[in-house]
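name: query_chain
kind: protein
chains: 1
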Amino acid sequence: MAKKDYHNYIDGRWVPARSGKTFENTDPASGEYLGTYPRSSPEDIEQAVDASVKAYDSWRKTPAPHRANILARAAEALDRKKDEVARSMTREMGKVLKEARGDVQEGIDMLQYSAGEGRRLFGHVTPSELPRKLALAQRVPVGVVAAITPWNFPLAIPTWKLGPALVAGNTVVFKPSQYTPESAYHLAKALEEAGLPPGVMNLVYGPGNEAGTPLIEHPRVDMVSFTGSSAVGQGIGQRCAHLGKRYHLEMGGKNAIIILEDADIDLALSYIIWSAFGTSGQRCTAASRIIVHKAVIWEVTERVVEATRKLRLGHGLEPETDVGPVVNAEQLEKVQRYVKIGIDEGAKVLCGGQRATEGALSKGYFFQPTIFGDVKPKMRIAQEEIFGPATAILEISSVEEAVAVNNDTPYGLVTGIFTRDINKALAALEDLSTGIVYINAGTIGAEVHLPFGGTRGTGNGHREAGLAALEVYTEWKSVYLDYSGTLQKAQKIE
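structure:
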């Protein structure tokens, strides 16, 4: 196949890496070559940051409704190419086509939502303690934002960062995962087509240690927004704290679906399969624990295993495929390693547990959807994020125990609970210590107008999406306008 070369997008131009170095993008389901991308170095980062710094003053002074109009046009540009972008996403990261379409749609939705904020960006007006004095607070942009994004939602997650950051008046240097570079290209093209001024958004490709680290450490980058693994995120947080930078981290999850004795089992089953194995379990919101009341655990276990065995592995572009590959060999090895950890701890593999190698599957990174049984809450497979097509079933005897087991992990992103008893649901809602709770629904399916994020090791207290996103990408400026014409001393000083 003829090579297709892509470039960085810096200061409104598509340019190769200054070193001339490149890396290749391949299909994790087949190994097929998809394109060549620049392997950026500190020199490329310097060029991108310089463009962002130069564009910042003009962009922050552009009226917010005009900034918003550009985001709205970018959403329209993506909508016109939705199927093309979704298909390219499936080829480069493996998720099935219907999920890829959902990823693109979420990106469209986020850009539209962010555009709506361009006519609000609300501040505060409050009564002054002194006469003839106006007291108010307004939002102002942070400055140059480094947006570092993962491969599992390669279009939606970047828009969660770029949309709010840009509408608030920041400029951005965007570094996507090296495993999903084409999705980032499509987003950058949509913004370019929409008329985003040069330098306002700059796209640089490359591995994290080569492109991400110099971007994080650049002295003219004012803020870092990162979504990815907890280990990398914690390192970024430590580095940013040392450098005195603002930072926003979205990291891991060890999410659970709780099934009480009065749950609608048919409904719960459909959500378990979707939440555990959607995107091959490669979601921070994936249900990697199923916490089940002892009165129904045998029925739930039997039916979940039966449904899991029926899932069809294959290329995500094939309409009959239920579960695609994991993204790369490293992820495949990680899932296999956790299967061994689970067995060594005393858990039972009820189905799956191995790499899938039959037929065409041997060409890709496929792992059989896996269910663990006999899992105890303190086992590593019930505490650590596997990030693959594997989930663990745990037994509890009360809603109180379910809540306690749910909360007892290093993460606190999302919980789903199934019950027909509204009193139990509301009592659990009060005590579940995750940032997101679903009642009679699974753990995946965030909506862009509500805050997204979690507690404990899931992040550092910030949220994405909804109005909360503006808190990440803005500072508060308090303004006092005294029109009394006299000296007024605060706090009743005579």
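note: Residues 216 and 236 are 8 Å apart (CA to CA).
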